[in-house]
Amino acid sequence: MKKSTTGLLVGSALVVGLSGCASSATQTSGQANASSDRSWYQHPAVCGLAGGLIGGSIGYATSGSSDEESGAATGAAAGAAIGGLLCADRTPQPVAPQCPSYGEVPAGVAVDAQGCPLDSDGDGVPDYRDQCPGTPAGVEVDARGCPLDSDGDGVPDYRDQCPDTPAGVEVNALGCPESLVLRDVNFEFDSAQLTPNAQQVLNGVAERLVNSPDVRVSIEGHTDSRGSAEYNQNLSQRRAESVAAYLSQRGVETNRMRAVGYGEERPVASNETDDGRAQNRRVELDEWN
Question: Which of 66, 69, 109, 156 is the most buried (most CB within 10 A)?
Fold first, then answer.
């Protein structure tokens, strides 16, 4: 049998085999997640070797007697390259998420330099899902990005002076059903000087008032009935002013507060007992309309 016929027959057989490998490799690439899942005969190196044999055979068969070696070499090189390309792994590489810490970012969403959705108020809920934008820093929010309102009275916790109001009770802008008695806001004996414990209580009151810039408050001082009415009225006024001054130091604007002393005029308990008199010596916080 002539060499050309032999070379072409061998080449044809190898072409058929290589085509099958390449076809199988293409199908596997579409199904597998990694090149390691492919059969050994589908790897580019094996296909390149087969392609080299094919190319060499065809080159040898089609060359003249004087250039058989160069024809075979050229064919082998071309065949190896083509075989490797036919069996190359075309499995799509997974696309890294735009913002790894967030996951898939919907199309059209405004993002920052790292590719993450903008969160202008820093509450952990991105702007495109935030139903309450502009939440003050550090305020705890729900999944909608809105400040928590534990008692459901419509006044969020970070502004609520009465955070445990029973369900269904109507409240004022302070979140309270009525005037708030500032318990434990006490003074030095026969003085308007706040005690250290009273200052600690007022720190929390001030923080919530600072977070409620549209709310005005009335600070009302009261005493028991011991002493003259005139003295008690003056003392209650000074104590109310002392509370207002302290709240002002903590950031509450003075034009949002008024201080009123009622002396012994509005008792809430009997002045005949120690316990009753203690209840009457108080400072109340109310909404100022």
Answer: 156
Same domain, 195 and 100: no
**pLDDT above 80 (res 93):** no
Could you tell me if residue 159 is inside a domain? Answer: no
122 and 59 assigned to the same domain: no
Cα 51 versus chain centre, distance: 55
Name the DSSP class of 277: H
Do 183 and 281 lie in a common domain? yes
Extended beta strands in 80-196, E state: 180-181
Stretch (H or E) spanning 72: helix 68-86
Q: In the 3-class helix/strand/coil scheme, how is 1-32 assigned residue by residue?
A: CCHHHHHHHHHHHHHHHHHHHHHHHHHHHHHC
Instruction: Return the C-alpha torsion angle 174, 176, 181, 182, nearest 10.
Output: -40
- Each residue's pLDDT tens digit, 257-268: 999 999 999 999
pLDDT in tens, 191-229: 999 999 999 999 999 999 999 999 999 999 999 999 999
**How many domains, the chain?**
3
H or E element in which residue 283 lies: strand 282-287
CB 209 within 8 A of CB 197: no
Do 161 and 183 contact (CB within 8 A), yes or no? no
